[in-house]
Specification:
By secondary structure, the chain is of the alpha/beta class. Helices cover 41% and strands 19% of the residues. It contains 12 helices and 12 strands.
Length: 307
């Protein structure tokens, strides 16, 4: 019997990622392609099937009735494929698949990875900087490093707060030399700031710092913290940062902290399945992260498991 023609597997994988994350951009981050590529895959898939699978809603997308049906079936199919490939793969060195918020991955963890991959550990590490969240129960990752306001809790999930850093504005000495002195929160809010995905983070920071009448904020958007900080280092404006991300830059003088504030906005956390919390690889990762972040100034470290 001839099997019906199957649409592009690449397009199906993109659709499954969109259905799971609810966002073209988040799916693109997960698949390491741009959101426009993901959107093109979805359009081609809809044209191939002759049905509408997704609809725009706010800043994300939702699945139609037929889209939901297809997503549920594809999700099960990809689970089967994942289990089959794991089952036939020969034993090898222990691999740690870690999904991590991009800022800390690029500016703090990358330089210390040899401590995990070199002797005596010899772990095989796959570090994926992304704003998406893996489905740990499906084995998409062994662990996740997130930055969140509250400690992650779930019936099947264990979490450990790693550090709660102070958040503050930074700029390069060259930028400050070219612009009038910034002596107040009002002065800071009036200049072109460097934003990540939106102005929301800066708006929240100003409220926590005590600025009541906040004007409309301007400035470029660079989507990720490490890009915003790099733009500040290049003298392009003022970025929002924290102790973990700019410790080295402050010490060398590449960046300068503006004003004197004490604002805390979130906690870096390690998240993994409870059933794997005491696996040697997860324990090694937890110990390594504690060592990497132990020297960060003004941070508050702690350890706990979710209830």
């Amino acid at each position: 019997m001839t099997r019906p023609r199957v649409p592009s597997l690449v397009a199906l994988r993109a659709f499954e990622a969109v259905g799971r994350t609810g966002s073209m951009r988040a799916a693109g981050d997960e698949l390491a392609v741009s959101h426009t590529v993901v959107s093109r895959h979805i359009q081609n898939l809809q044209e191939s099937l002759g049905v509408t699978l997704v609809r725009a809603q706010g800043r994300g997308v939702i699945l139609t009735e037929r889209g939901s049906f297809l997503y549920e079936q594809l999700s099960q199919a990809f689970d089967i494929i994942a289990r089959a490939t794991v089952a036939v793969r020969p034993p090898s060195r222990t691999t740690l698949n870690i999904w991590c918020i991009p800022g800390i991955a690029n500016r703090r963890l990358l330089q210390r990875l040899p401590e995990l991959t070199d002797p005596p550990n010899r772990w095989e590490v796959n570090l994926q900087p992304t704003l998406s969240h893996p489905d740990l129960s499906r084995g998409e990752a062994d662990a996740e490093i997130v930055y969140a306001d509250v400690i992650t809790t779930h019936l099947d999930i264990a979490s450990e707060p790693l550090i709660r850093p102070r958040v503050f504005p930074v700029a390069s000495p060259s930028y400050l030399a070219r612009h009038p002195a910034i002596t107040s929160l009002k002065d800071l809010a009036s200049i072109a700031l460097i934003h990540e995905e939106s102005t929301e983070q800066w708006e929240r920071w100003f409220r926590l710092a005590g600025l009541v009448d906040l004007p409309q904020l301007g400035g470029q958007r660079l989507w990720h913290a490490h890009l915003a900080i790099e733009a500040a280092r290049l003298g392009q404006g003022v970025a929002i940062a924290n102790d973990v991300l700019v410790e080295d830059d402050l010490r060398t003088g590449a960046l300068v902290e503006l004003l004197s504030t004490s604002v805390y906005m979130g906690t870096y956390q390690l998240v993994a399945l409870k059933e794997r919390w005491r696996d040697p690889a997860i324990v090694a990762l937890r110990n390594w992260l504690q060592n990497v972040l132990a020297g960060a100034p003004n941070g508050r470290t702690g350890a706990c498991e979710s209830p």
